[in-house]
């Protein structure tokens, strides 16, 4: 995951806006899980996509949704803290 982050992966936090406001990965985009299908255009033309949440459950669902819509470059980053650590924060 660290390599993908260094390559400028699109970091997507699929938690609620309230959770995102309480703490998030610097430079990440908040697209709540229930909005992923409506926001597919934001994922287009991204070389690497890393989705994450509080526990890894919602990001797993987001990865499945994206893959069902033709995205092959999606990584479930697990928790937002895991992604933060991978960034060296």
Structure report:
With 89 residues, the protein is α/β, with parallel strands linked by helices. The chain has a single domain, classed as Rhodanese-like domain (Oxidized Rhodanese, domain 1, 3-Layer(aba) Sandwich). The protein contains four helices and four strands; from the N terminus they run αβαββαβα. It has helices at 2-6, 17-22, 57-68, 80-86; strands at 10-13, 29-30, 49-53, 74-79. The chain has a four-stranded parallel sheet. Strand 1 (10-13), helix 2 (17-22) and strand 2 (29-30) form a beta-alpha-beta unit. The two termini are 14 Å apart. The mean pLDDT is 96.
Q: Which key features would you list for this structure?
A:
89 residues, four-stranded parallel β-sheet, 4 helices
What would you report as the Rg, rounded to the nearest angstrom?
12 Å
CATH fold name, please? Oxidized Rhodanese, domain 1
Residue fraction in strands: 15-25%
CA-based shape: globular
What oligomeric state best describes the polypeptide chains here? single chain
Helical proportion? 25-40%
Overall SS class? alpha/beta
Return residue spans where pLDDT drops below 50 for at least 5 consecutive residues.
Answer: none
Count all strands and give the number: 4
Can you give the mean pLDDT? Answer: 96
Series of secondary-structure elements, N-terminal to C-terminal: HEHEEHEH
Q: Under the CATH scheme, which architecture would be assigned?
A: 3-Layer(aba) Sandwich
Count of the separate structural domains: 1
